[in-house]
Amino acid sequence: MDYKTKGVCSQQIHFEIEDNKIHNVSFVGGCNGNLQGISHLVEGMDVDEAISRLEGIQCGFKTTSCPDQLAKALKEAVNK
Questions:
Q1: Which reaction does it catalyse (predicted)?
Q2: For a designed S-S bond to 55, which of 10, 17, 71, 76 qualifies (C-beta 3.0 to 4.6 A apart)?
Q3: What 3-state DSSP class applies to 1?
């Protein structure tokens, strides 16, 4: 799935969900090292677990962050 982010430096998130597990997460733009780290940490993680851990994280003065955007993307994918 592709998700267009809102309010963060990265512009898009690509990911796959198989058997409620997250796979192949990649971000377009943003802080490359940190986003690679997040991608590796959530690989194989249960979707609901990732959402509960990432949802609501803020970046500086922004009301969202790349991890929060990933949580939103996952929620959207699950609700489709």
A1: a 2'-deoxyribonucleoside 5'-diphosphate + [thioredoxin]-disulfide + H2O = a ribonucleoside 5'-diphosphate + [thioredoxin]-dithiol
A2: 71
A3: coil
